[in-house]
């Protein structure tokens, strides 16, 4: 569902329940936490040459029990077998707690994702494209606890367990082989910690502010985990309001993974969250860097547009960082702004072709 190649239809509408008002507004940080109930829903209908007809939907219910909590559910399936299910519970809701000091926040996320058309191109920044694809399956549990020391300084710690499977090895394809780290079945148990300085006026649709995020994730080998690696990530993003509802947003993201790591956990360039003009997982290695620039503008009522450019590359280690041989792309997209989330459609163009992505949430 995350990549479409042929034709995509989105049924865009907002279901406002419990007296909610769409538009993505939230109370000023000085106001008390709001106990207003709200819900947003988005039905999905699409066609893709790889997965066939896709159908499903996403819904968010906020403050149903008047505890500032939120429930987020995505259900998606296709006629050729792709399945994607995501459930997220947050308390307080991530948008309600943005710009506020709070003693404790909890985020619980369950994901099941079966993709029939996964890619593998080998390791390194100069790998060749290939048309071969194979099925993968992942089940993931994530639990994160957070504490806001002030309105903009937040610390987080959590746990992740993933069960990952990749099938259909055929070395003759030049694609994933049984000797590739992480081929077959893998289990990952990891602990993570992060620190964030966040002055954005919103997490859903920021117009101004900064976000600096540093995080460490340590996977531990045990009876229920097959890997032992350390992942370090640093990401900075900035947002400037040019005039009413026109926003210029930029991001720089770098990451390094060391230790015994499966290919599915390596740093990557190429997908709907990184370089949008390239196939998913197009470039893999231990380290990566990525820059993105977006100009976001209103189109009509809840519909907005975006012009963007991305550029990034991978290295065998962050000590190899340099400014040559970066993979760039540019593109256009649409945004549909609901009260509780954003729906996006991006079309990216690179020297390797044109890619179309349908997803929820801003890229950054």
How would you portray this structure in words?
By secondary structure, the chain is an all-beta fold. It has one domain: membrane protein fhac: a member of the omp85/tpsb transporter family (Porin). It contains no helices and 19 strands. The strands form two sheets. It has a 17-stranded antiparallel beta sheet, with no helix packed on it.
Helices, by number, come to: 0
Shape: globular
Largest sheet: 17 strands, antiparallel
Low-confidence stretches: 4-33
The CA-CA distance between the termini, in Å, is: 20 Å
In CATH terms, what is the architecture? Answer: Beta Barrel
List the helices and strands and how they pair.
Elements: E1 3-4, E2 38-48, E3 52-62, E4 70-78, E5 83-91, E6 105-118, E7 134-148, E8 153-166, E9 184-198, E10 209-219, E11 228-243, E12 246-260, E13 267-269, E14 283-285, E15 287-300, E16 303-315, E17 327-337, E18 342-350, E19 353-360
Antiparallel strand pairs: 1-19, 2-3, 3-4, 4-5, 5-6, 6-7, 7-8, 8-9, 9-10, 10-11, 11-12, 12-15, 13-14, 15-16, 16-17, 17-18, 18-19
Keywords, separated by commas or semicolons:
364 residues, two-stranded antiparallel ribbon, 17-stranded antiparallel β-sheet, Porin, mainly beta
In short:
The chain is mainly beta. The chain has strands spanning 3-4, 38-48, 52-62, 70-78, 83-91, 105-118, 134-148, 153-166, 184-198, 209-219, 228-243, 246-260, 267-269, 283-285, 287-300, 303-315, 327-337, 342-350, 353-360. It has a single domain (3-28, 35-360), classed as Porin.
């Amino acid at each position: 569902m995350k990549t479409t190649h042929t034709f995509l239809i989105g049924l865009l509408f907002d279901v406002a329940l419990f007296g909610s008002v769409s538009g993505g507004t939230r109370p000023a940080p000085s106001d008390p936490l709001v106990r207003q109930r709200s819900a947003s829903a988005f039905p999905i209908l699409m066609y893709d040459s790889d997965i066939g007809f896709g159908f499903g939907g996403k819904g968010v219910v906020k403050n149903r029990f008047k505890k500032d909590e939120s429930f987020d559910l995505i259900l998606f399936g296709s006629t050729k077998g792709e399945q994607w299910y995501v459930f997220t519970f947050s308390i307080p809701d991530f948008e309600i707690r943005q710009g506020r000091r709070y003693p404790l926040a909890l985020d619980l996320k369950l994901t099941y994702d079966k993709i029939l058309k996964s890619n593998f191109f080998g390791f390194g920044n100069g790998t060749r494209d290939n048309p071969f694809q194979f099925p993968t399956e992942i089940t993931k549990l994530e639990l994160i606890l957070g504490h806001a020391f002030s309105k903009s300084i937040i610390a987080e710690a959590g746990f992740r367990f993933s069960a990952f499977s990749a099938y259909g090895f055929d070395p003759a394809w030049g694609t994933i082989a049984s000797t590739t780290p992480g081929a077959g079945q893998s289990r990952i148990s990891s602990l993570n910690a992060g620190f964030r300085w966040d002055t954005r006026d919103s997490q859903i649709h920021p117009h101004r502010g900064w976000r600096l995020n540093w995080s460490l994730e340590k996977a531990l080998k045990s009876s229920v985990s097959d890997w032992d690696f350390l992942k370090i990530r640093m990401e900075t993003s900035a947002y400037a309001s040019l005039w009413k509802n026109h926003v210029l947003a930029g991001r720089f993201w770098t990451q390094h993974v060391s230790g015994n790591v499966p290919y599915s956990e390596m740093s990557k360039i190429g997908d709907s969250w990184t370089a949008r003009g390239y196939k998913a997982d197009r470039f893999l290695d231990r380290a990566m860097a990525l820059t993105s620039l977006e100009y976001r503008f209103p189109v009509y009522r809840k519909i907005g547009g975006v012009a963007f450019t991305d550029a990034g590359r991978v290295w065998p280690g962050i000590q190899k960082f340099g400014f040559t041989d970066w993979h760039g792309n540019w593109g256009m997209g649409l945004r549909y702004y609901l009260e509780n989330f954003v729906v996006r459609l991006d079309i990216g163009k690179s020297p390797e072709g044109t890619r179309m992505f349908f997803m929820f949430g801003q890229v950054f």
